[in-house]
Amino acid sequence: MLVTEKKRNQPAGYAGALLRVDLTTGRLWEQPIDDEFARSYVGGTGMGARILYDEVGADVQWNDPENRLILATGPLAGTPTWGSGGLSVVTKGAITGGATSTQANGFFGANIKSSGFDGIVFQGRSDQWVYLYIHNGTAELRDASHLLGLDTWETQDHLYEELGLSGHQLSVYSIGPSGENLIRFAGIQGDYGHVASKNGCGAVMGSKRVKAVAIVRGNRGIYVADPRGVFRTADDIAYQMRTELPGQNFYLIGTLGGVTGLAPVGGLPIKNLTTNILPAEADMSKWEPMELREGFDHRGHQCNACGMHHCHMQVIRDGVHAGDVVDEPEYEGWVGAGWAWGCTDRTKVSWMNTQCDRAGVDVNEFGWVIGWVMECYEKEYLTRQDLGGIQAVWGDADAAYELLQMLCTRQGFGDVLAEGIKRAAEHLGGPAQDCAVYTMKGSSPRGHDHRALWPEMLDTCVSSTGTLESGGPTRPQELGLPATLQVQSPDDVPRQVALTLGRRHFEDSIGTCFFTTSTTIAAIAEAVSAVTGWNYTKDDAMYLGRRTAALMRAFNLRSGIGPELERPSARYGSTPVDGPAAGVSTAPHWDHMLDTWYELVEYDRESGRPLPELLDRLALPEVKAELWG
Amino acid sequence: MAAKRHVIVGGGTAAINAITSIREFDQGASDIVLVAEERPYSRMVLPYYLGKRISRSHVWTLSPDRLAALGVTTQIGRRATALDTAQQRVTLDNGETVDYDDLLIATGSSAVRAPVPGADLPGVHSFWTLEQADGLIAEVKAGSEVVLVGAGFISFTILNSLVKLGVRLTVIELAPTILPRMIDPNGAAIVTRWLEQHGVTVQTGVRLNAIEEVAGRKRLVLDGGGELSADVVIMATGIRPNLGWLEGAGLEMGRGILVDDHMRTSAPNVYAAGDVAEAFDRVTGQRALHAIEPAAMEHGRIAGANMAGVDRAHRGTVLMNIVDVLDLEIASFGLWDDADAESVAVEKPSQWAYRRLLWHGQGEAMTGAIIIGISEHLWATNDVGILKGLVQDGQPMGAWKRAMMDNPWELKRPFVATGHVGRLLQETVLGRPSTPADEVNAARWVSPEAAALAAQTEV
Amino acid sequence: MKVLHIEPEKCTGCLRCEVACSYVQSGEFNPSKSVIRVSAFERGHTSFSPYTCFQCAEGWCMTACPVEAIDISAVGAKEVQDDQCVGCKLCTLACPYGTIFYDPEREKAFKCNLCGGDPQCAHACPTQAITWIEDFTQDWTGAFAAQRSAADLARIGATNGR
Question: SS3 for A22?
C-alpha cells in the first residue's frame, strides 16, 4: 500500500502528484507534479499525451503491458466550477492502435483530488484481477476476482457494500464484462452512467487486469491561488451557461434536443445510414426534448458542482423494465441504443442505453455494429444461423440486447462483433463490408449522420484521438471563424475543423466537462488562472491544445497511423439516398478539404507530420527530432 | 416573603447547570448558595491542561464575576460534612451551618486507587482533580517512563496527552481487555493494536500486587512475578461517588442516591445530580449510576428547573462515552454491552474502523452501539451523533433494522428515512429552547438593598 | 428567524454546497471539512439531499459543552468559539443529528455557523434546493428519504439480507 505525506509542496489547484501503478510488480509510487510540469501540460489530456508520448514506444501494442493507461483530471476539478469532476483517459487504444483521448465526468476528478492525486498512470499487467483503491492519500491494489463478470453498475454497488460507503462517498470507474473480455470498443464507465468510451480504453484496462478504480471522497484539501476569483469565474461561466447560446441549450436540456434538431437537416442516423426518412411508426412529438423529460420520472444526477439540467436519472415507466432506474440517454445514446438500428421506442432505447453503459461498451460503436448486423441480416449477408439463432430484424431491441450479451462474452459471432465494426466488416468482406460505418483508422463516428455534417466527418477522419478531436467551435468568432458556419462547404469545413483544433484538448486537460464550458475559451482560461494563479489566457489555452494535438499526432505517426487512413468507409462516406441531404456528398471534395486542413494546422500533407516550424513554436524539439531527424 | 434559598453542594458540571437552569427560569428571584470545596473548574478539560494544550486559567468555569452575575452567594473552600433533612440544614467543615429551602447534592466523585501496598507512595498519582493534575504535571517529563494502572475511560482521556508529552508509556489493566466498560473485546483488540503501533505498551489481564520505591524509581510488582519500573505511576483505577458526608442523613441509596425523574431524593426538598445520583437511564428506563458529563449536565438542568418551581421530568440519560487515542476515535452508546441483544459487528481492518449495533431483546429499536474509527475518516461522516440520535430516540426501525444489520456503515439513510429528525427536533431537556449558559444571569435579580435604594430614588 | 430551508426534490447531488462550505470552513476545497453533507437516499447516484445542522431548539452541543464554548450567534446559529473549545468532543457525542464534528488538525469542534448570516451553501446551490429564508427548522428530508428508499428497502426485505 502506498501511503503519501499529507502535505506536499504542490502547485495551487493541484493535489500535486500522479499515482503511478506498475501492475506487473504491484509497485505504487508518486510522480510529483511541480509548477513547470503543471503549467506545461495542465492535466487530463495534456499530461496524458506527454506521458504517452514519452513512455510508449513504437513497438508497443495496445494490449502489451508496456502500454500506459492514464486516467487524469485537472486543476479545476473539485472546485465550484460546474462539472468539475472531470476524467480524461489517454492510452494507446484498442481500435486505432493510436492515441486516445476520451472523457467522462461524475466525481472522478473531485474525489481523486480529495484523496491526494491528480491522476493515475497504469503500466504493466497484473497476474490477478485487481481493483485500485484510493483513499485519503493512500492507494492499494486489491483483489478483484469477486467482481469479475459484474457489470459496471453492479461493480459500483458491490464496492459500496464491500467498502461500507454510499452515494458520492465513493466514485467508481470500472470496466464491464466487455472490458474483461477485451472487446475492442469497451469503455471505462463510472458513477452510474458516465463513460469514457472511445478507442477501447476499457479493453486496455482489461488487458492490464484492472477491473475498477475506487476512489473515496477524501480529506485532502485543494488550495487555490485566488479563492474569490474561483467562485467568481465559476459563477460567470454558470451565468453564461444559463443565459447564452449555445451553452443555454445544454443548460436546459443537455443533449436531448439532438434527435428533433438533427432529423430535419439529415443529421440523424437512421438504420445504419440506409435512409434519412423518419420511419412512419416514429411519433416525433414524443422525441421533443421536454417530452423526453416528461415521459419518465426524473432524478437529478449531476456531476461535481454542476448546475446543468443535463445528466439525469430516469425511471422506466412501463413495459417489462418498469421501475428500473436508468441513466437518461444523451443524444448519442438515443441514437446508438436505438435510432442507428431502427428502434424508435424511447422506453426501449432508454433501457438499452443503460445496458450498454453497464456492459461497458461504447454506445456509438454499438449502434454502428447493431445497425450493420441488422442490415446484413435483412440483406441475408448474415443469417439467423450465423447469429446463433437471433433474428436481427431492424429495430428489434430484444435482438440487440442478445447481440450485446453475445459480443460482450465473445460467444459465437459475438467474437467477430467484439472486434469492432471495422474488423467485423472486414471479416465478412464483400458487399457486407460496404455496409459498415467506420473510418479507415478503425474508429467509428459519433451518433450523427456526418454525411450532412461534414465538419464532424472530416474531424473524425483526421483525428489522432480515436474520436472527434476538434469538436464543434463553441464561439467561432473567438477563433477567427464566422459566427455562422456552413456545414457542407468544402472551404468552410476544413477551416472550422482546423482553427478549432486545440480547444478540446484544453477543455479535456482542466478537469471539467466540455458541456459546462460551452462558453469562450477566455472565460475558461480565467477560471484556470484563478485556481492556479497563472494569468492564463485564450492564447495559452490554444497553445496547450495545439501542443497536445501535435504530441498525439506524433505518437500516431510513430504507431504507423498516417494520412493514408484519413478517409471514411464506403458507407460512412456515401451519398444520402433520400431525406434532407439527399445527393450531397463529401467524396468530390475530400482531397480539397484535407489539403486545406493540413495547410491550416501546419502539418505536412504527404507524411502527416507537424511541420518543423510549428514544432519549434510549440517548443517540442524532441518531437521535431523524432519526426524530422 | 423572603426569597427562596437554594443550596447547591458541589461545584462541578451538575452544580453549574443547576445554577444556570434556576436562573434561566427565575431570573434572579431566589437566593442561591454554592458550597464547593474548590473554585469551580471543568474536570473534562484537565487532560488538555496536562497536555499543555490549554493554560491553567482555561480550566475555570464559574468565575467570581460570573457567580456574582448569576446572583450566587458562595462558600468556596468549604466542604459539607453533614445533612439534616428534617431541619433542612447542611453543616460545613468549619462548623457553620447553611439552611436551605431546597438542596442540590452534586458532590461528584473521587478517584480510587487500587488497594495495593505502595499505592500512596510519592510519585504515585491519581488524575481526577485539578490539584492532582498539577501534581502530575510537575513530575511528568519527556522521556519519563510512565505506567498507567487501569485502562478505562479516565486512563484513556489522559493517554493522548501523555504520549504527546513524549513519555514512554505502559498501560496495565486487570481485565482481559482494555476499556472494559466502554467497548467490547473486538473493539478493544483494535484499539490495543493501534496503541502498540504508536509505541504504547499494553498489558491486560495483569494484577498489580505492590508498588515499591527503588532508587528513586517505582517498581511495580505484578501477579505472577512480573515487574515494571517507572518514573511515574498513575492510578486510574476507578472513581467512587462522594457520599460519605451523607451517612446518617437517611436518604434512600442504591449505588448512589436514588432520585426520581425530577431528580428528587427520598427527602423532601432535597435533589441530587451528577455522579452521586442514581437516576434514570434513557434506554432501560431503570435507575443507574452514570458518572458521565452529559448525565451531570442533564441532571443539573432538570434539578435546577424543578428547584425553580418549574415542573420538569427527565427522560433519562443515554449512557455514552467518547475518547480518542492518537486520532483513533472510540465511542459507545447505550446498552453496548447487552447480553440479551441481537447484534451485528463489522470491521474495516485497514482503516481501523469498527462498529457494533445492538438491538435489545430482538426488538426493532436500536439500543446500543460502538463505533471506532480514525478521526479524519470518522468525522467525514455524521455517524457518531446519529448513533446517539438512534439510541436516544429509541424508535422501532421496522424494515430498516434489517438494512442496518446488513450494512452498519450506512446510518444516515435509515436514521433520516425513519423520521428521527422530526421527532428529535421536538425534544428539549427543559421543554423550551436552551439559553447559552453564559447568557444566563440574574439580570432581573435585584438585591434587597438595591431594591430599597431604587424605591427611595423613585420617591 | 431565517433557516436553511432544504428541498430534497430539487437536489441533484452535485455537492457544490459542500465545495463552497468546505472553503468557508477551512480555506481550501476539501469536502471532508464541509459541515453540510449530501447523501444518497436511493441506490445508484440518485435521490440526494443535503443535511446540516438544524440549529435545534435544544442545542445539544451547546448545553453539553463543559467550557461554554458554544454560543448562539446573532443569526441564530449555535457557533463554536475556537478560543474556548478544548476539543473534548462531548458536543459530538451529545448531538443526536451528527452535525457537529471534530477537526483533528486544529483539535477543535466545528459545525455550521450559517456563515454569519450569509450561508454559502445556499449561494452555491445551482437548483435552489438550499435557500436561506424565514421558516421554522424542521425535518426536511425524512419523507423524501422514506419514499426514495422504499424500493431498496423492499429489495433488502425480499432477500432477507445478503
Answer: strand
